[in-house]
Design a protein that fits this description.
Strand content: under 5%
Number of strands: 0
Order of helices and strands: HHHHH
Radius of gyration: 22 Å
Helix content: 55-70%
Shape: elongated
Number of helices: 5
Distance between the termini: 42 Å
């Protein structure tokens, strides 16, 4: 994972929001839904990181391409590259997803800081936010992953009658 001492992409905006120098016009619903969706996106990123790490831990003989055979050096090289790309380098999928996680986390923090300033300054706004948080619906968003099966190809798009379109 990336170090916590690495510069945060929008740290300056978070500081400006915390100190009251950043203004944003947004409805309470937007703050609540952005926060909810950031949480969902962070969970999805962690799931994908787990999958990348699992790929990095698959033993050579489990790949089924002869990587455990000393004669097949290209198979060994390919498997080593896939394992390293899963998790094992600064340019691995796991590391890149960690950068994305931090960006989503910063976006969430930025909106929370702005929301808190609104809540502190406006009782009506605070009441609307608190009411929304108490009744937050779990609605699907565009970040929900598509359902697919590795090695099967793209999932078919089905019409409402259940036939492929």
């Amino acid at each position: 994972m990336a170090e916590d001492t690495a510069p945060r992409p929008i740290a300056n905006l978070i500081t400006e929001a915390r100190e009251g120098r950043l203004q944003l016009r947004i409805e309470p619903e937007d703050f609540v839904y952005i926060d909810r969706d950031c949480e969902r996106f962070k969970r999805l990123i962690r799931t994908m990181q787990g999958e990348a790490e699992a790929i990095s831990q698959i033993e050579k003989q489990q790949w089924g391409i002869g990587a455990d055979n000393a004669i097949l050096t290209s198979a060994q090289t390919l498997v080593d590259r896939f394992r390293t790309k899963g998790k094992g380098s600064d340019n691995s999928i796991h590391a890149i997803l960690e950068d994305h996680f931090r960006i989503v986390e910063d976006i969430q923090t930025l909106h929370r800081e702005i929301r808190q300033r609104y809540v502190d300054a406006d009782a009506t706004f605070a009441a609307r936010v608190n009411n929304l948080l108490a009744q937050l619906p779990e609605q699907p968003t565009p970040i929900d992953p598509a359902q697919s099966q590795p090695g099967v190809g793209q999932p078919e798009v089905l019409s409402p009658q259940g036939t492929a379109s």
